[in-house]
């Protein structure tokens, strides 16, 4: 940490800061400049937080230097992690050596629609099936998902087509029930800072897909992952899904730079959701190509057998020629960035 | 709703839209322009949502015209509402005729600190006591609040100084417990879109203080209020607390315009939190003055007997001369905008 | 400046930084932490910029500590400045002791419309007349202003009603011509970073009204003022006019906090433009009240005798009852924050 | 255009709107809903703008339906354009069939540095040379470029290595001088809304590289292009260079979606600047890969023989292994998205 004193801070003010820091076992290095004095702090950062340094007389600013997250940081864990999703004997990797394609319907509507979407997804090369049973909706008047029944449908379709399933959980009270059937628990963008829910999935024993809050900084997103990790669960896959900006042409602005930024800062895998980022079907394929090329560890997209009758986010769901174009990109581009396909059949989880 | 057809849409595409609209009982008015055709829809908007109009061939865009919220809208409820907070015989109004000053410590730390802060708050003119027992924190390593014990302290201090209490609830599982003691339940900025929690407080029977999500549009904020209202609870006070922008000089950017915008769109009262908006003690008094002058129905501020040792947000807590300046503003400015003080003793709730 | 080394930086990397700093006459204070080393730099900041410290091996980040602006900073000029606008014998102050009301039509359309607007403005208490002759418009198909002819009209109307005039200049080639007649030169939001134009008005010998870029940080805005000041012109009034955010309810988001933030950082006066910030007539009066109460040194608003036929920004122009309400606020609120009226007749510029 | 009436608008208010529209030769289609009436307008949009519809009694909102730009729109010009840059006999295409790599130093510092950078750029596959002679800088204390002398250096280096040159012009007064030597004129992000400058380059007879304003919407960016086009110059290449958001990890947020969005809306070519978007050398290669894969018509990057001593933006300049990785991406990825290299020798401009 670095404490910046105000131009009119007195020698006494500086001494008071040093004293406080030393009282909690830290060391304070004073650099006296022409206009200002700065003080470098060395020691246990958590103990410094308790000092309320910004409230002390003469203090103009306090800058944190180290990353506030620990377990998910790459600093003490330089090798990038692979997360394995699925039942024993048929797990799918998400990590630096492969490219994982996750696809399925935004919402589970019926057994038929789900099976059809899953079949399309698998044929296009998907190795994980996503589908929403519990839906967080901005409007209380919008379709809220089938809940428990949707979960049952998704699980049986996943078993039928042979793909592990990923589904969202929106309430800490539902985690145990969902974890019984799902192979991976998704935390949606609106719940990224729902700390009770993060802790609940951290204790669930299942891999977690953690979407970025639509207005969260990358640092806040990694802090959310830290909440999960702190409960003993490091099987976390991050998912960039667009951030809120002033640009109205797309529903959100896909922050493609977040992928390499996260890969420098954290050992966790990171994938991209081009469907929710753009909200426009015609952008899903080009953005998926960009995601692969930038080095993402996977993508997650909406597919639907008949977008015209979809109960949720129809305008962004792929099918037909677009889905074929995406399947081609998923085959062709990953090898150019040193990645193989992520198929359950061909890999063996470690240990 | 207005459907805008693409320049190359065919007469058949237009007819398909009209047919769909009529199939759910709506009427479609076609305006054929030089470059484009637009179709005005009249009827039940919820039935139109199910049509996925944006996915139909030839459709370029769909614009909603009406407000998506109903119960909280001012359209069918033109008179602005007053929400009454407190125990029978000692309730405090928040509404258009008064100006309500809410103050207290960001976090309840101990009986002594809470009593001292409450005494300061009351002396400065506050008529409601706020205090945090359950704290949502960005870092899992930060102070998480005293929980149940903090709630007990707050309740007994509130009774001792004679002020109704407002406190945050962060988990749907805690709502019943908190509602037993609190006079008003606060939903924090990070939980504005936690729909399960919104529904739980909607069923609690207690008034709700609903903070704006730091990246929520005003419309999304009113939709969150609609979630609460839909469960039968219209005792909702909105709280503008700053939005996330590119400007780093303040923790958030106080969206002062949100106050009159909300007052045009909704009948609910709206107050301002200048402490969390700015994160800077030196801005709390000027921003409070601005909030009163713009016509807010109240403000909520952090006070602490000794900010230097506060466990939460010390740098923004008021005390001493700043608190006296604020007390003066709260006395002097409201009469200029047609408001009286909001004192429990002097008012009688209606009905 | 503070240089933060990467966790894996070597002692040699640190030595290289120290060596570079000392080579340009600076001093480097090394604080060796557990995880990282930080280096505090003392000396001439401009010489440090030439070092490209961020490109050196082992350097993770470089933080600037001092303000990058000098002439406009309050650091070496603690007293807040007053800028005087007008012809000798009839100058109007903008500064900490007064509250200055600037009003007039967004665009000068005709002698009649301008005179009528100016008369309305004066009757409402305005002491400076604003009016646009050269208009920067987003669309090349929109009304671009009357140019030179508009300037002539504005000048003769200003003389007729006895108010100094403020008008925008959009091209460095026009500065001399405009400065001949205008009492104050306005730099619009789109030109805040048009450095050639800033330098030209810096040499014009006239006071400058510098609007904040709609997406400029406060620091960048003060750097733009520094460009003007560097050419010898410190008669600069800053104008907050709203920033671009994700909120669509208002044209821009008025950053009301910018007023006290600027007043802490700079000695220059700062006023508020609620008309352009909101783009909504119904918000101009409440936002003006907020601006006065927060401590702004003035406001600038659009008035028009007949907004329905205005050639520019009609929807935000005041007239009738709204203008009367504003006039009342301008009389009543400033005394509560220690300010008197800014009338040319009652003040004498210093020196 | 669509006019939305307020819920309480009267039949008379509706009639007044219709009358105004018909008075300027338009047609008004009235759709009377349960809560509201909407009116679709057909006719000349520019004549409607003069009506100030938003100021009429009973009007709640006015929505524009058509694009406000015309010459640059793809609506009446469905084929995507190719812009040719260079001297007769050696022009380089920027357009849908090729991928154009533009590289060079951020600032021209000396003949030696520029030649070395140009040689590196060409070896890496660049077919256009960029270099800054006139530099717009946020701080008046930063290096402002060599001006005319820098232009001379760049021109002679371009001739020596056989690459057409692209350079920024920051002042309308310099356009003629710069256009004499430059093969393409760049408008920087800070000048995107400097309408006088846009008109000047529109009359220069040279192709224009128009960077997106860091806080401009895509529509505003296309309107800026319309300013250039309106002066008779349609040789415009758009350049996405990152927008301002709340995320601090990168200097700007690269809006990668802008590429396909622009390609749907406009026939103009669009390239990407990953250096200025990120400000971080370690992100330039992954973001360049993303730009190619998303379908951009080219990229523009900073290269410098010795970033440690660069006078401008050293931290983002490529050299060594990073530049080799980029050269490889530029060879390998474009064929996957149907593009060939953009070499002057192999192509013949049409006509």
Automatic annotation (TrEMBL), chains A, B, C, D:
Q: Which UniProt keywords apply?
A: Transferase
> Which Pfam families does this UniProt record tie to the protein?
DAHP_snth_FXD (PF18152), DAHP_synth_1 (PF00793)
Locate the DAHP synthetase I/KDSA domain: which residues? 98-332
One GO BP annotation here?
Answer: aromatic amino acid family biosynthetic process
Q: Does the keyword Transferase apply?
A: yes
Supply the EC number(s). Answer: 2.5.1.54
Matching entries from PANTHER family are given as: PHOSPHO-2-DEHYDRO-3-DEOXYHEPTONATE ALDOLASE, PROTEIN AROA(G)
Q: What is this protein called?
A: 3-deoxy-7-phosphoheptulonate synthase
- Annotated organism of origin: Nocardioides antri
> What gene is it encoded by?
aroF
């Amino acid at each position: 940490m670095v404490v910046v004193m105000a131009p009119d801070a007195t020698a006494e003010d500086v001494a008071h800061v040093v004293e406080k820091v030393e009282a909690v076992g830290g060391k304070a290095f004073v650099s006296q400049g022409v206009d200002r004095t700065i003080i470098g702090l060395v020691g246990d950062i958590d103990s410094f937080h308790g000092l309320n340094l910004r409230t002390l007389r003469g203090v103009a600013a306090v800058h944190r230097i180290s990353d506030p997250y620990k377990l998910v940081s790459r600093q003490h864990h330089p090798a990038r992690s692979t997360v394995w999703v699925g039942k024993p004997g048929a797990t799918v990797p998400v990590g630096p050596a492969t490219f994982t394609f996750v696809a399925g319907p935004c919402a589970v509507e019926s057994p038929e629609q789900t099976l059809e979407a899953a079949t399309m997804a698998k044929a296009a090369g998907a190795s994980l099936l996503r589908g929403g049973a519990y839906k967080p909706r901005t409007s209380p008047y919008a379709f809220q998902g089938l809940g428990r029944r949707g979960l049952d449908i998704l699980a049986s379709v996943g078993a039928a087509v042979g793909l592990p399933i990923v589904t969202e959980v929106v309430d800490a009270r539902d985690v145990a029930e969902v974890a019984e059937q799902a192979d991976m628990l998704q935390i949606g963008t609106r719940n990224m800072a729902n700390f009770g829910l993060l802790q609940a999935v951290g204790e669930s024993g299942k891999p977690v897909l953690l979407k970025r809050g639509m207005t969260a900084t990358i640092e806040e997103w990694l802090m959310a992952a830290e909440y999960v990790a702190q409960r003993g669960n490091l099987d976390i896959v991050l998912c960039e899904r667009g951030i809120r900006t002033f640009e109205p042409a797309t529903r959100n602005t896909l922050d493609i730079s977040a992928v390499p930024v996260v890969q420098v800062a954290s050992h966790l895998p990171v994938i991209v959701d081009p469907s929710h980022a753009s909200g426009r079907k015609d952008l899903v394929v080009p953005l998926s190509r960009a995601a692969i090329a930038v080095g993402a560890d996977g993508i997650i997209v909406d597919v639907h057998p008949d977008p015209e009758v979809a109960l949720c986010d129809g305008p962004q769901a792929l099918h037909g020629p677009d889905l074929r174009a995406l399947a081609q990109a998923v085959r062709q581009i990953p090898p150019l960035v040193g990645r193989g396909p992520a198929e359950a059949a061909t890999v063996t989880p470690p240990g």
